Protein: Ribosomal protein S18 acetylase RimI-like enzyme
Organism: Microvirga lupini
Amino acid sequence: MPELRGRFVEAQPLEPADERIVAVRDSAIAGFLDLIGSHVSNLFVDPQHQGQGIGTALMAEAARRVVGDLTLSVFTLNPDARRLYERLGFRIEGVKTAPFAGSSAEVWIMRKPRPGKWPSGDTPEG
């Protein structure tokens, strides 16, 4: 998301997390996922390692650690991330404007209920 790249600065680090799950590949950090309760507050995979299943593995580990539904927000400027989350069983619950780096950005609010909890008997597979 080049449009947002300049908004991530060292002077304003990411928010604190209850848990940070780190993916390491060849002795280097390839990505990380932050959890605040059952909410994925950040998921980042180094561009050199994207498309290698790291994001999927991080999300699987988060789901393993969380009790109840897993939630997240994703920038509407990032449809690739939305597709990943939908492939992993997340559904959009709504859209909102969220504060971000001293400004605001539009995000999709997404949820992945635990098995058997989809409304109307629906399932993540459709």
In short: The CA atoms of residues 22 and 32 lie 4 Å apart. The first strand starts at residue 19 and ends at 25. The chain is about 20% helix and 40% strand.
